[in-house]
């Protein structure tokens, strides 16, 4: 009885092993090729469970997702102006025809990338050689990338690969040229800044001169008006004095003398040296005569 159970278990294990050797799974991210003694017999691109002949047939899997090929270092290209530019680019690609991919490059991804890179570099040298620096930097950059994609894709189809996109990440001058360009740009910016600064100073001086002129004109007008008012006042005062003097000359003379005495002897320290017979003391003498 025990031997029967052991035999059954061994048979079941052998059956499982045999089934595992005959079955293989292809998921949605893969494509597969069934090889029989090294020869390709079948291609599986639809996800699912499949069977193969154990020991005689084997399966190779290939990634069907979109892959990225990025350059490790920027490549040097020459434009139509014979100027060097450094270009950093990347390529988006995927395996489109697994059978053709296996036949042409043996299913080797490294060989496929080498072929793609050679194609892209060749097309880029051709396209950059037709255009100026301005075109490759900004003017026709989108157009160049589309041409690169089309030409690279046309060649990549020969090895069962589809090129989905070619992108120029950066287009720059070589280091030795960049430094010279930056120095020229810096000098140009400084020149423009100096011109703007000189223009600003000239405008400032002009505004300041105009303000000074307006100030002088305003002061002159004010002084003129003040002098006119002062002259009118003096004329009116003289007229009043003349009218008063005409009415009572003696009183007017007396009033003027009293005002002169007040102004002359306003401070105790004031000293005047005059002849006693001077007319300045006329009314002082008259008051003394009256007192006597």
Features:
Tetrahydropterin Synthase, Chain A; alpha+beta; 292 residues; 8 helices; 3 domains; three-stranded antiparallel β-sheet; four-stranded antiparallel β-sheet
Q: Could you describe the 3D structure shown?
A:
By secondary structure, the chain is of the alpha+beta class. Helices cover 59% and strands 21% of the residues. It has helices at 2-22, 98-105, 109-128, 133-139, 141-156, 175-247, 249-264, 282-291, and strands spanning 23-26, 30-36, 39-44, 48-51, 57-63, 67-70, 75-78, 84-95, 161-172. The longest helix is centred in the C-terminal third of the chain and has 73 residues, at 175-247. The protein is rod-shaped and about 170 Å long. The termini are far apart. The relative contact order is 0.07. The mean pLDDT is 81.
Task: Specify the oligomeric state.
Answer: single chain
The CATH architecture of the largest domain is: 2-Layer Sandwich
- CATH fold-level name of the largest domain: Tetrahydropterin Synthase, Chain A
Structural class: alpha+beta
- Quantity of strands, as a count: 9
**Helix-strand topology string:** HEEEEEEEEHHHHEHHH
The average pLDDT value, as a whole number, equals: 81
| Shape call | rod-shaped
Number of contiguous helices:
8
The percent range for helix content is 55-70%
Whole-number radius of gyration?
56 Å
CATH superfamily of the largest domain: Band 7 domain
């Amino acid at each position: 009885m025990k031997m029967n159970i052991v035999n059954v278990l061994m048979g079941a294990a052998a059956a499982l092993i045999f089934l595992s050797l005959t079955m293989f799974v292809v998921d949605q991210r893969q494509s597969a090729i069934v090889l029989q003694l090294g020869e390709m017999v079948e291609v599986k691109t639809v996800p699912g469970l499949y069977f193969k002949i154990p020991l005689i047939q084997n399966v190779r899997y290939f990634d069907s997702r979109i892959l990225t090929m990025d350059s490790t270092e920027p490549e040097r290209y020459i434009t139509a102006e014979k100027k060097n530019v450094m270009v950093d680019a990347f390529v988006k690609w995927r395996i489109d025809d697994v059978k053709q991919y296996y036949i042409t490059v043996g299913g080797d991804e490294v060989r496929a990338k080498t072929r793609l890179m050679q194609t892209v570099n060749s097309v880029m040298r051709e396209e950059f050689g037709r255009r100026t620096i301005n075109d490759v930097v900004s003017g026709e950059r989108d157009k160049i990338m589309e041409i690169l994609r089309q030409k690279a894709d046309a060649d990549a189809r020969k090895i069962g690969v589809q090129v989905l996109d070619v992108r120029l990440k950066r287009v720059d001058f070589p280091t030795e040229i960049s430094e010279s360009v930056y120095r020229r740009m810096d000098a140009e910016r400084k020149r423009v800044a100096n011109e703007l600064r000189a223009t600003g100073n000239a405008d400032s001086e002009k505004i300041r001169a105009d303000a000074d002129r307006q100030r002088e004109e305003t002061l002159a007008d004010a002084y003129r008006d003040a002098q006119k008012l002062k002259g009118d006042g003096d004329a009116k005062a003289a007229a009043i004095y003349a009218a008063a003097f005409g009415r009572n000359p003696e009183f007017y003379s007396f009033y003027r003398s009293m005002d002169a005495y007040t102004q002359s002897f306003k401070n105790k320290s004031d000293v005047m040296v005059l002849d006693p017979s001077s007319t300045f003391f006329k009314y002082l003498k008259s008051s003394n005569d009256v007192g006597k």
